[in-house]
Amino acid sequence: SFELTQPPSVSVSPGQTATITCSGDNLGDKYACWYRQKPGQSPVLVIYQDNKRPSGVPERLSGSNSGDTATLTISGTQSLDEADYYCQAWDSSTSGVVFGGGTRLTVL
Amino acid sequence: QMQLVESGGGLVKPGGSLRLTCVASGFTFSASDMSWIRQVPGEGLEWVSYITSYNKMNYGDSVRGRFTISRDNARNSLFLQMNSLRIEDTAVYYCANFQLFGELGGWFDPWGQGTLVTVSS
Q1: pLDDT of residue A1
Q2: Backbone dihedral region of B74: left (phi > 0), alpha (psi from -120 to 50 degrees) or beta?
Q3: Which of A73, A43, A38, A39 is nearest to A58 (CA)?
């Protein structure tokens, strides 16, 4: 079955660039998207169709998707970026949806 | 402004049933694909089910045969009938608008605030 793999945690210093990866077989052949979830809140879409930002999401957040890996990049990371980030894609073999296990971003 | 409000969660015994409801506003519900996603407290997200605007449905392996998704366009409402509940079904259940683009996939936006389902004896 199709699976998405994310690192459990990523740490970054304020002002630096955070990179969160999401790996899956031929992930680049389908749309990847990303959600941010802060404690006690519902997930919020931050990247869709590999690299598009919904209105209200700052340009500091960007996405890419090629080969087997989708990447969420946060430039100039701020303390307010601390959250859990989940990638998500389509499983064409089951016509279902798959989430990555999530990555906790810590801004030290 | 698109809004989704879930209700119907609560405490239920193993083997019991529960029906979740999600009321939508701020968009054309009848033309929208919708989905349920759940999250065990402290853990990751798990897709549960979706229903398209033309009533195509699909389910995750862990709930297929026990859960049924449905919709009432006249009431702008999405439902999840959960039968034969197990302890491992304990989770916060979110409904979400599903932007599906065929075999390329799609995304969920927005999400509701979630409703907690606890399965325990």
Answers
A1: 86
A2: alpha
A3: A73
A 26-85 residues inside an 8 A Cβ radius of B: 30-33, 35, 42-45, 48-49, 54
Instruction: Give B64's contacts in chain A (Cβ within 8 Å).
Output: none
- Whether residue B103 and residue A90 make contact (CB cut-off 8 A), yes or no, is yes
The single-letter code of the amino acid at A16 is Q
Per-residue pLDDT of B49-92, as tens digits, reads 999 999 999 999 999 999 999 999 999 999 999 999 999 999 99
| Residue contact A43–B45, C-beta within 8 A | yes
Structural contact between residues A19 and A73, judged by C-beta atoms closer than 8 angstroms: yes
Query: In angstroms, rounded to a whole number, what is the distance separating the alpha carbons of residues B53 and A16?
Result: 43
Chain CA centroid to CA B69, Å: 7
Phi-psi region of B114 (alpha: psi -120 to 50; beta: other; left: phi over 0): left
